[in-house]
Design brief:
Radius of gyration: 20 Å
CATH class of the largest domain: Alpha Beta
Order of helices and strands: EHEEEHEEHEHHEHEHEHEHEEHEHE
CATH topology of the largest domain: Quinone Oxidoreductase, Chain A, domain 1
Bound molecules: zinc ion
Distance between the termini: 17 Å
Shape: globular
CATH superfamily of the largest domain: Medium-chain alcohol dehydrogenases, catalytic domain
Number of domains: 2
Structural class: alpha/beta
CATH architecture of the largest domain: Alpha-Beta Complex
Length: about 325
Amino acid sequence: MYGAGDVRVENVPDAALQAPTDAVVRVVRTCVCGSDLHPFHTMPASAGGSPMGHEFIGVVEETGSAVSTVKAGDFVIAPFAFFDNTCEFCREGLTTSCVHGGFFSTAQAEAVRVPQADGTLVRAPVGEDSALLPSLLTLSDVLITGHHAAVTAGVDARTSVTVIGDGAVGLLAVLAAKRLGAERIILMGRHKVRTDLGRDFGATDVVAERGDEGIAQVRELTGGHGTHTVLECVGHMPAYEQAYGVVRAGGVISRVGVPQYEEAAVGFGSLFGRNITLTGGPGAQRPYIEELLPDVLEGRIEPGKVFDRTVDLDGVPDGYRAMDAREALKVLVQP
Ligand SMILES: [Zn+2]
């Protein structure tokens, strides 16, 4: 990406091992993320450009001398962060805070260098022609992110849920909330094709209105009180304002859309006065992949339904355009 709206496909040096703990993974599927659209809107023009992409599944091509859990030929899932899976944060399951970790940023490509390969890569018993590839790719980001929203909000059979956002993360937050037992799931989104998929995933109600009108509708659906949990899957200020507008007293807001702001209301009228908890953050936690993978492999969930367009690498710039124009929900890339 060379600046807002300016995505190009270029030849760069091949991904290669740089440390004994690295692996090189040939990308079988990658995709464009809703969070890639933030720089697509705002990135200042740059002479050098930035490589893009943080979601991928693929086949290990080469491993460094210290790598022992994966080998050439293994099919693997990579979360959008890398980590050693051994430090004190990793042992607590918070792999995005790994002391040797970081975030991927070069996945929209033919191959990726994976640091900390032993900790990062999760093997999956599938071939490159598996029909499960789209669903497996959601374990790289959008499914584990939606799941993170539901887990950190404390969703279970007892809690009512509002999901804000009808992008891929919002729709998969619905799926995750349903999977964790929620019986009442209100999806706030205004694109009918998407909210219909949200109903497939488990939404019991859809509220298309936004702002005060949307808040009033959610409150009307919940006896005037709002829902125990709110999963905010957008990242813009109006979505945060909606979140504290629809959360029930004593409830929890979890934000997993990357916030496009640093300052926000937390005072008496928003969070403090009604004992609201605010949580959330990046959801690339390895235990989530291990927990959700069997459900994908055995067909109990089909998160790959969020992909509604496939392009090759040359089609990536048009993929950004199509997602930005909301012609496509989520674009799968087959290099
Ligand atoms: Zn670690």
